[in-house]
Design a protein that fits this description.
The chain is of the alpha/beta class and 492 residues long. The chain has 2 domains: 139 residues, 3-Layer(aba) Sandwich (Rossmann fold), CATH 3.40.50.720; 234 residues, Dihydrodipicolinate Reductase, domain 2 (2-Layer Sandwich). A 9-stranded mixed β-sheet has the order 16-15-14-13-7-12-11-8-17, with helices on both faces. α1 crosses α13 and α6 packs antiparallel against α14. The two termini are 35 Å apart. The structure holds NADP nicotinamide-adenine-dinucleotide phosphate (NAP). NADP nicotinamide-adenine-dinucleotide phosphate (NAP) binds next to α1 and β2.
């Protein structure tokens, strides 16, 4: 059973409290923390949007919209009824004047507590909402603001958002959320590396051949065409989640598990990334876009068809990259990243491919010696697999085989795994920013990717087509195979 430490009474004000993120993730996450006894009785949760809802109609809205994300029957429970008492609603226009006095009145007493302002709205509202919060006198030293991705669509726009929010809140009050960092398995990456003495001596270019990071989705646009078509895979996945995974995999051991010690080490990795080669046959980036195909036996439309009959687009729904980190530990070790929609299987994983043994003493009849491989599965079926060479049992000559040593978290730990947002929301209340991105990390990641985005905009090249249900365009296979390596799903 996980240990639950209740937090001090707090107010959580969710701007965009009727939006998709709030109903799918934030309200269920707060409910689960309340159910587990982590949220005290006098904490308050206020949802904000422009809709003119009464207390009753908001309550009905929450019941209807949140219930699909709860366990069956939960809505009728006494705990849910008590949780609903904590929720209130105020109609406020984040960009206008309406509703601010009412919000001020709702927060008037008690004033001496942590106040979390969660901005689950479009990023263009972040600056304006922050300024109005200050104008209304709603911010003090104990206030915190949470902002969601995307923080900009390039370096310049990210700086603008950071300046606007930073004009009102100090850096230590700003929590830039990347929900990947709240996943249990991602935090486990730090435990694996720094709570065991086994791997760290091997974690370098002497012993590691290359690293692969894959975030594959089977879904397509899911009704978010307007957002995704102006974003694409590089902005949506690589700039934040995947570069963060890369940092946690590659960083030096932080001196302590404190926010700045961890973020300093991640920043050093981002700064050490070798600029991407976007042009020519030896380029380090492959872009793709899905055509019609089939996933799990069901036919799926092409990206262009999903967008609608009149819409053609050069937006990439897949990207594969070869990255290099110019530092002592990682010189010569390529990091291959790929992510995409409508791929063969939903999976997120980090693969550490070790180098082969320097010399084989076994006869060729014993079989091929496969190099060791460590696979950290972030989802689904969270766990860790280490592939080792072993002797097949029995007489009749020596035969060697690569077999998995498997740690499945579901088998090792009983009970429910909290969702990433549960952990992260409680971290904000506690004032622990370790799993949130600092301004310099976000901006350094954009500075690294901006040249590739600009080169694509300047050029006329189309993303490479791939069939929905495959593992991406042939060029992505070529990207890794031209160096004699292979994507993980093809190794087993
Ligand atoms: N959905 C996800 O899974 C997800 C994942 C990662 C990041 N995000 C980010 O989270 C943010 C919210 O996404 P979402 O999908 O929840 O968007 P959404 O479904 O469009 O919801 C937007 C919310 O903001 C409110 N809103 C809009 N304009 C407002 C204004 N002027 N004043 C006050 N409230 C206003 C809307 O209600 P009214 O129109 O009634 O005011 C609604 O409650 C975005 O930045 C998005 O990129 C979302």
């Amino acid at each position: 059973m996980a240990q639950i430490i209740p937090v001090a009474p707090f107010d959580c004000v969710v701007f965009g409290g009727t939006g998709d993120l709030a109903v799918r993730k934030l309200l269920p996450a707060l409910y689960h923390r309340y159910k587990d006894g982590q949220i005290p009785a006098d904490a308050r949760i206020l949802a904000i949007s422009r809709k003119p809802l009464t207390a009753e109609s908001f309550g009905n809205f929450v019941d209807e919209k949140v219930s699909p994300y709860l366990e069956p029957g939960e809505l009728a429970s006494e705990v849910w009824a008590r949780f609903r008492q904590k929720l209130s609603y105020v109609a406020v226009d984040g960009q206008g004047e309406a509703g601010w006095p009412e919000l001020q009145a709702a927060l008037a007493a008690p004033a001496d507590r942590v106040r979390v302002f969660y901005l689950a709205t479009a990023p263009r509202l972040y600056g304006g909402v922050s300024h109005r919060l200050r104008q209304q006198g709603l911010i003090d030293g104990r206030s915190r603001v949470v902002i969601e991705k995307p923080i900009g669509h390039d370096l310049e726009s990210a700086r603008r958002i950071n300046d606007e929010v930073g004009d009102v809140f100090t850096e230590s009050q700003i929590y830039r959320i990347d929900h990947y960092l709240g996943k249990e398995t991602v935090q486990n990456l730090m435990a694996l590396r720094f709570a065991n003495s086994l791997f760290e001596p091997l974690w370098n270019s002497m012993r590691i051949d290359h690293v692969q990071i894959t975030v594959a989705e089977t879904v397509g646009l899911e009704g978010r065409a307007d957002y995704y078509n102006t974003s694409g895979a590089l902005r949506d996945m690589v700039q934040n989640h995947m570069l963060q995974l890369l940092c946690l995999t590659a960083m030096e051991p932080p001196q302590a598990l404190s926010a700045d010690a961890v973020r300093d080490e991640k920043l050093k990795i981002l700064r050490a990334l070798v600029p991407l080669e976007t042009e020519g046959a030896n380029g380090s980036v492959v872009r793709g876009q899905y055509r019609a195909g089939a996933i799990n036996g069901s036919a799926v439309k092409s990206y262009a068809e999903e967008l609608g009959p009149d819409r053609s687009s050069r937006t990439e729904t897949f990207v594969a990259l070869r990255l290099a980190i110019a530092n002592w530990r990682w010189a010569g070790v390529p990091f291959f990243l790929r992510t995409g929609k409508r791929l063969a299987r939903k999976t997120s994983e980090i693969v550490i491919q070790f180098k082969p043994v320097p010399h084989s003493m076994f006869p060729s009849s014993a079989g091929r010696l496969a190099a060791n491989r460590l696979v950290v599965r972030l989802q689904p079926d969270e766990g860790i697999t280490l592939r080792l060479m072993t002797k097949e049992p029995g007489p009749g000559g020596l035969r060697l085989r690569s077999v998995p040593l498997d740690l499945s978290f579901a088998e090792a730990f009983s009970g429910r795994f909290p969702e990433a947002y549960e952990r992260l929301l409680m971290d904000v209340v506690r004032g622990n920013a370790t799993l949130f991105m600092r301004r310099d990390e976000v901006e350094t990641a954009w500075a690294f990717l901006d040249p590739a985005l600009q080169a694509w905009d300047r050029g006329s090249e189309q993303p490479k087509p791939y069939v929905a249900g495959s593992w991406g365009p042939a060029a992505a296979t070529a990207l890794i195979e031209r160096e004699g390596r292979t994507w993980h799903e093809e190794l087993d």
